[in-house]
Design goal:
Length: 529
């Protein structure tokens, strides 16, 4: 029995490993203790990899796995060390486990906040390691009544806000991507003015690390802060510019900082460690037994489903989030792929552009449709290498322009999708709709009104509209023992007709050639869906 290989690149809870071991379709390789060069060799054969923040999914990693790997499961939240566009380009789906470590990170943030206010690690060290009993040295501050600024009010930031309210703090949130009520409903003030955050007594950051957030707090922002401000970072190294943070702590402008994450990890040589007004932890935000158990189990389940091709939960680079699209869209996406495939077979030449238009409610999903149409249109020329994740990249690499258009509602159909495929030889335009929500119907091919399901072996026979043609075509196909299952005819205003003939078996080139030699024939094409 063929097995799927899942390589676990970093340490995860044993329960996750057991889940992988117990599945008889999975061959699990535990590679967390391997050096990175050996890892690159092992992952070459993997269908799926499970990683944490210690494994960079960078160019080297992607080069090693491309062509074989289907998915990467980041056993945690942050994907800043995963080259998602690079993975997409190679058709690798990237998933994370977004909420299993939320509470662990929230509680570590509260730990840092309290530790900073009471200088707890230092008083502990004084007594425990230096055996000094000097109570007057350790006057701290209370959280009660202090103003807390929370940057990023998502899963972790919002819960830090709620817990801080229980400490009777005055909490204000800055997150331009949420509805203000997410904060105000839990008694937290909401601001879009970053200066409101800079004027707080304590500031904590909980955003992802990306181009917009890296260095979000630098020397200029620190200069605007209150003297004696306390800064917490349990999200990602680099959100606070480390040099500016160091200078601020050294000068005393920042009284204390609680830092779990660093620009470069492991951070054993980081200059921040030389300071004596900082609480540090070695990226422990997710390190609770509960969190690691849940993450490992979820990551293993996601990896198994992905390896078997069943589902891709929490995928970050699929063109659509399946959980968010309405049910009526799915059959359209499937049909879009078929129409793309049909059009490419009817118009066999290098593709120049693909244009997908939508009318009705489906118009809103025209970008997702375009991805599916592109997969269909390039299936013949790209084979197994094209999928929903890399379709846009493959099209771009081949110089194919993919366009979309949202058009006004059709007077006839509730929803209508039109695919225009232009090659350097010809243009094919096909419109299709859905009857009774799930019956796929092509209703127009290049201006010929038809009513045909995109399915099976299809001969598309265009002719001058003169008597006797249907009979000739029927006789010729019968002579080649090709049985007609369905025959649909469309006419245009120029006295031409298009027959879409669905046949029971494959049609050979000789038969197609003889069809094209019939007097009335203008063109013949053949497609298999
Ligand atoms: N230290 C750890 O071990 C640890 C553990 C878990 C998560 N994390 C990190 O914590 C961070 C937050 O995780 P989460 O689960 O809350 O994520 P989340 O996606 O639920 O929340 C992130 C929030 O940041 C907001 N945001 C994005 N850009 C912003 C900007 N420019 N300004 C203000 N807000 C912005 C988003 O709108 C979102 O609400 C991530 O970076 C994650 O990697 C660290
Ligand atoms: O983003 C995360 O989930 C945390 O930073 C945890 O990272 P880790 O899995 O490497 O501990």
């Amino acid at each position: 029995m063929e097995k799927y290989k899942i390589v676990v690149c970093d340490h995860i809870h044993e329960e996750g490993l057991n889940l992988l071991r117990r599945d008889d379709k999975i061959d699990m390789v535990f590679a967390a203790d391997m050096d990175k060069t050996a890892l690159l060799d092992v992952i070459k054969e993997a269908d799926v990899a499970i990683t944490r923040s210690s494994t960079d999914v960078d160019e080297k990693f992607i080069n090693a796995v491309k062509g074989k790997m289907k998915a990467i499961v980041r056993a945690g939240v942050g994907v800043d060390n995963v080259d998602i566009p690079g993975c997409s380009k190679e058709g690798i789906i990237v998933m994370n486990v977004p909420t299993a470590n939320t509470i662990a990170a929230v509680e570590l943030t509260m730990t840092h906040m309290l530790s900073c206010m009471r200088m707890f690690p230092y008083s502990h060290d004084h007594l425990k390691n230096q055996r000094i009993w000097k109570r007057e040295k350790w006057y701290g501050y209370e959280l009660k009544g202090k103003k807390l600024g929370v940057i990023g009010f998502g899963n972790i930031g919002s819960r830090v806000g709620i817990r801080s309210k229980a400490f009777e703090m005055d909490v204000i949130a800055y997150d331009p991507y949420i509805h203000p009520s997410k904060a105000t409903d839990v008694g937290v003030k909401y601001t879009t003015n970053f200066d409101d955050i800079l004027s707080c007594d304590i500031i904590t950051i909980h955003t992802p690390k990306n181009k917009e957030t890296v260095g979000m707090i630098g020397a200029d922002e620190i200069a605007k802060m209150k003297d004696g401000v306390v800064l917490i970072n349990c999200a990602r190294g680099g959100l606070y510019d480390e040099d500016a943070l160091y200078d601020g702590l050294k000068s005393g402008k920042i009284r204390f900082a609680g830092i779990d994450v660093f620009n470069k990890e492991p951070a054993i040589d980081n200059k921040l460690l030389d300071l004596d007004n900082i609480c540090v932890s070695p990226h422990l935000g997710a390190n609770t037994f509960e969190s690691q158990y849940n993450i490992a189990v979820e990551a293993a389940q996601q990896a198994i489903e992905a390896a078997k091709g069943i589902a891709y939960p929490h995928a970050l680079n699929l063109p659509i989030d399946e959980t968010k699209i309405p049910a009526f869209v799915k059959p359209f996406l499937e049909m879009g792929q078929k129409i793309g495939f049909l059009a490419s077979q009817m118009n066999k030449a290098p593709i120049v552009s693909i244009k997908v238009s939508g009318r009705g409610d489906i118009a809103e999903y025209v970008n997702s449709l375009a991805t599916f149409v592109t997969v269909g249109a390039l299936a013949d020329i790209s084979g197994d290498t094209i999928n929903y994740v890399n379709a846009d990249f493959v099209a771009k690499e081949r110089g194919i322009k993919v366009e979309t258009e949202e058009l006004p509602a059709s007077p006839v159909y509730k929803n209508l999708v039109t695919v225009k495929l232009t090659t350097d030889k010809d243009v094919i335009e096909i419109s299709a709709t859905m009857f009774n929500d799930d019956v796929q119907r092509i209703v127009d091919i290049n201006g010929f009104g038809v009513d045909v399901e995109p399915k099976g072996n299809m001969i598309l026979f265009k002719n001058t509209d003169v008597p006797g043609v249907i009979g000739q075509v029927g006789t010729l196909l019968a002579a080649h023992e090709v049985n007609i299952a369905d025959f649909r005819l469309g006419r245009n205003k120029s006295s031409e007709a298009l027959a879409v003939i669905i046949v029971d078996s494959a049609v050979n080139d000789k038969t197609l050639k003889e069809l094209s030699n019939l007097n009335a024939c203008i063109s013949v094409s053949y497609a298999r869906i």
